[in-house]
Amino acid sequence: MNASKLKTIILAMSATIMAASLMVFPKESFEASMRGLTMWWEVVFPSLLPFFIVSEFLIGFGVVSFLGSLLEPLMRPLFRVPGVGGFVWAMGLASGYPAGAKLTARLRQENKLTVIEAERLVSFTNSSNPLFIFGAIAVGFFHNPALGIVLALSHYLGNICVGLLMRFHGRKREETVQKDKQNKLSLRAALHMLHQERLKDGRPIGKILGDAVQSSVSTLLMIGGFIILFSVLNRLLSLLDITTFLSLFVTIILAFFQIPNELSLPLLSGIFEITLGSQMASQTGAATLFQQVIVTSFILAFSGFSVQAQVASILAETDISFKPFFIARLFHGVFAAIFTVLLWKPLYVNQQILEKGSNAIPVFFQAETYLIFEHSWNLLLTYGPLVTLISLMAYVILTLKKLTY
Predict the structure, then answer these.
(1) Which of 177, 223, 291, 396 has the most CB atoms in a 10 Å sphere around its CB?
(2) In what residue span(s) does the Nucleoside transporter/FeoB GTPase Gate domain sit (predicted)?
(3) What is the mean pLDDT of the chain?
(4) pLDDT higher for 361 or 289?
(5) What pLDDT shows up at residue 405?
């Protein structure tokens, strides 16, 4: 039996088992589905939609090309990607998964990136946004705002390391295809490119807005489907004791790093879905806070199969390979865990001692800073569903209008 037939049999059996499990555990599957839907409805959709729409405007008006020309001297030497990668990186940091993949795919479709450059760029521009790290993880799960700075710095420093590492990806193939591009900074050239890109697009503002809403909502609907699917899948694997069986192998790895086996199940759950894994890690009483944060940091960086499936679906519309992205997630998880170990004492332990022994607290550790993230997170949970509902109504109206004409 060849590999192709074996793959077909495995996929068919997996789909059959999942369908049977849905019929055996209808109540649990429904609850898991509602959990995924709630997360998408309240958090993912309203938090990502503005960034997606704004990014479409910036691309349509030529701002991305303008920034790309200015950032070329920075991005090309460091990460071996064009200057437009700086825009993708910034938007990915601000908005979170999977904005970096969507923007990379869009720029690849417009031939602003080569295949190799796109594979490098997508590997380090997908990250968790600060609001989720500080609001959901640090405050919501751990009830400890001071952990936010450790998790955030570990996450983003790990991402930079991934970018520096992935600059070597495809280097031999690239040298046979293209020469080094000009790295000189020219404001006049950047402004000229801005104007030319706007003229090249040619769409009126109303058309750009309509297309931006439709494209963004369509992508977010796909993302919502993956979130619900993996929420149900994660629950079914738990009910079938598959996660318990797999956690036995994870326990061996954790034992090597002197991490208690009680964290094996949260880690395995986090490999499938970030939110559930992080929540379970924060509730593991047998482990120390230090150990909980290390595992959570790895989970955030690895991003889970749920997010990776979203990225794979977006990249499937282009010729960008998913494999480098997956490898980069493994490296990101390792880097983030290492940075958590290195930053734990100076940024958390020493800070706790400082708070007890002195009133002099560094600015970025003050409670007001964390209250901003907590307040923003609560606002998102309160008004997010309204934003989602209005946006979906606008999407339906625009789609019907387009079909009418």
Answers:
(1) 223
(2) 43-140
(3) 85
(4) 289
(5) 66
Say which amino acid occupies 62: G
Give tens-digit pLDDT for 287-326. Answer: 899 999 999 999 999 998 989 999 999 999 899 999 999 9
Confidence (pLDDT) at 174: 66
Show the tokens assigned to 310: 């979203």
3-state secondary structure the chain: CCHHHHHHHHHHHHHHHHHHHHHHCHHHHHHHHHHHHHHHHHHHHHHHHHHHHHHHHHHHCCHHHHHHHHHHHHHHHHHCCCCHHHHHHHHHHHHCCCHHHHHHHHHHHCCCCCHHHHHHHHHHCCCCCHHHHHHHHHHHHCCCCCHHHHHHHHHHHHHHHHHHHHCCCCHHHHHCCCCCCCCCCCHHHHHHHHHHHHHHHCCCHHHHHHHHHHHHHHHHHHHHHHHHHHHHHHHHHHHCCHHHHHHHHHHHHHHHCCCCHHHHHHHHHHHHCHHHHHHHHHCCCCCCHHHHHHHHHHHHHHCHHHHHHHHHHHHCCCCCCCHHHHHHHHHHHHHHHHHHHHHHHHHHHHHHHHHHHCCCCCHHHCHHHHHHHHHHHHHHHHHHHHHHHHHHHHHHHHHHHHHHC
CA nearest to 149, candidates 361, 385, 392: 361
Considering Cα of 268, then 384, then 210, then 50, what sign does the dihedral take? negative
The 10s digit of each residue's pLDDT in 144-173 is: 888 889 999 999 999 999 999 999 988 776
What value does the mean pLDDT take over residues 212-231? Answer: 89
